[in-house]
Every structure is written in C-alpha cells, then in structure tokens.
Amino acid sequence: MFDLNQLRTFLAVADARHFTAAGAALGISQSTVSQHIRRLEAACGRQLFERDTHTVVLTADGTVLAELARDIVGLSRQAADYFTDSAPRGRVRLGVSDDLTLTRLADLLRDVGRANPTLSVELTVGLTSLLYQKLDAGRLDLVFAKRQPGDDRGTLIHRERLAWLAHRDLALGADEAVPLVLYPNASITSTLAMEALNGARRPWFVACSSETLAGLRAGAQAGLGVMAQSPLLMRAPGSDLVEVDDRAALPPLGEVEFVVLGRSRRLQGAPSALADLIIKKGPGLWA
C-alpha cells in the first residue's frame, strides 16, 4: 500500500513543515515532493496536510501516519542494514563494575537493543579488578568500570566523587577507630579508603566485608560501619545511608574515573559499536 520513497518524503515535509525545505533536505525538487504527497494521499484516501501559501500542518490523519511511517521506514532500514552486513552483529561480552548498577545502566542497555537489534550482549557484573583480569585473559571483549591506578587505558566517561557513607544513626567520634565496611579482595574504593585513613594516621578495623555491593550496602544499612562508595547509594530505594558528618573528622577520598576499554586500543565490529554507544550515552547514566 505504501511506497517507502513517498513515506520518506512525507516525513521530511512533516519535520520541515515546508515542501521546498523538505525537497532540499532529500535532494529532490519541490514538484517531486508535491507529487509524492499527492500519491500518498491518494493511496490513503485521506488528506495528510493542511496547507496554504505560508504554512504546512499535519492533519489528524497525517499525525497518525507520521507515527506509523517512522516505524515502517525504521524497520525497512534495519532490514536493509542486516542483509547488507552494515549492522553490527554477534555477541559482545561486556563487563561492568558493581557500582554501575546504581546508575541508569538499564537505560543504556535498552538503547543498545534499539540501536543494534542484531547485537547480543553477555553481561558480567563484578569487582573492577576481576573484570580487568577477565579482559586481559580474553574472557571479556569490553569493560565499563572504574580505571585502575596506574592504568592509562580506556576512554574517560565520568568522574565521580567518593563519599564516606553510614547509617544515619551511626555516631563516630573524631578520636575513634573507624569501623570499615569493605570488599575482602583488593578493590579501588577499599584501597582508597584504607590509604586515606592511613595517610591521616587514623586507626581503623574491618567491621564487615562482602564480595558484592549489595552485601556492603546491607552491612552499612545495619549500622555496622562506614564505607567509601558512590553517593548514589543514598538515593537507592529504602536507603537510610547518609554522608558521615564532619564531626567524625574523616579524610577526603577524592574521585574515581569510569572508563570504557577493550582488549585492544583499536576496536572493530560489534565491540566497537557498543563502545561508541557507551561513549555517547555513558555520561548520562549519572543524571
């Protein structure tokens, strides 16, 4: 029933609200634009535009067709991309650090599916140090995580200030040893916490440890101690976590950098397409 070229012309007019401007955008004459619209209206049996010498406005039927036409043209483009091998296909093994689950990571993954419907993402969530090990061992294609100290690889996506977090009822004096809630294995945030306290000559001890961020959050929520983590944890549903106040006299923690990196500096194919999307959309995850 519908000719794709006519639908593309129709959408160009709907966006530009001008026949001549739509023709210029498509590289066709104004008379060809008018011809496409007349034929499309004849195929629909409906008037699609209200127009005079100054304005072009969609009718109610035109508004409905515009929404449908975007889907039709979009699906046609996806099909053409698929069968001409221009769309990235295959599986990408993506590793993301535990704390990225606090961000709008689901929105990013949804965008991946929309932009590349033929792309399969195998997601691994875990400690940054373990993700780097898997990447270097060839068990991951791409990592989106904090940058390890001394490692200059990767494209910077976001810098985040770390905070000392604890249950709102936890009281900690300036002279007391700090009860830490941290990962049992080496991690960037745990290392920064211990180095900050050691540098300030502040005594500390491990009050609770867990291999997952959910476990750390539970320990802090229970009032067992203090952890160095993203301020986003305070915004999680049901959170009673707050930043430890100045009376505790805890030293500053500084910032961490989130980067995306692959197994080589020059990515190709599906990993390259996913990395490009992370670079484009990634900064918005913390919004």
TrEMBL record:
Residues 2-59 form the HTH lysR-type domain. Coiled coil: none annotated. PROSITE patterns: HTH_LYSR. SUPFAM superfamilies: Periplasmic binding protein-like II (SSF53850), Winged helix' DNA-binding domain (SSF46785). The keyword Transcription regulation applies. The keyword Transcription regulation applies. Keywords: DNA-binding, Transcription, Transcription regulation. Belongs to the LysR transcriptional regulatory family. This is LysR family transcriptional regulator. It comes from Nitrospirillum viridazoti CBAmc.
